[in-house]
Amino acid sequence: MTADSDDRRGFLMLTAGAMAAVGVGRMAAPMINSLNPAKDTLALSTTEVDLTQIPEGEARTVMWQGKPVFIKHRTPKEIEEAEDVDMANLIDKQTDDERVKKKQWLVVVGICTHLGCVPVGQKETDAHGDYDGWFCPCHGSHYDTSGRIRKGPAPRNLAVPPYEFLSDTVIKIG
After folding, report:
1. Among this protein's residues, is 139 annotated catalytic?
2. What is 41-173's CATH topology?
3. Fewest beta carbons within 10 Å, which of 47, 82, 106, 140?
4. One of 73, 114, 128, 139 is an active-site residue; which one?
5. Which residues pair with 135 in a beta bridge?
C-alpha cells in the first residue's frame, strides 16, 4: 500500500462517518421534537379569568393546559370551616393560608390525586362529600372547602396551580 491510498482511505472513512452522523441527527430530530408540548397546549400555558362572573358561594371550572381548574368564591362559613381544621386530622398537612392568596378565592386543579378522576362539587346540586368541598365518586375521596383530602384513598390535596391576581377581579393562571 502506498501513502496515497492510505490518505484516500482515511478521507473516505472520515466522509462516511460524517455523513452517517448527519443522517442519524436528521432521523433523531423529529423523534426528539415529538417530546415537546403540542402547540395547542403551549397556547394555553396561561389563562386569565374574570372573577366578577363568579358570585359568592359558587364555583367555575376553566381549562388550563388541558386540565380543569376549579375556582371557588368561598363564603365566610366555608372560609371558617377551612381555617378551623385540626391539622392532626389531615392526611396531607397544609393550612388554608398555604393554599390561598385571598381567603375568599380558592383555585385548585380539579383532578383527584388518587387516579386522576375529576371530582364533583362544582355545582350546587353535586355531591360535596362529608366536608362540604368536592367528592370523587370513583373511589370515594372527600375534599374540604380548601381542597384538602380528608377521607378516602387520595394521598394528596388537590394541587394549587401557579396563579396571581392581576387586579382585584382578574387572575392569571400559569
Report:
1. yes
2. Rieske Iron-sulfur Protein (2.102.10)
3. 140
4. 139
5. 120, 142
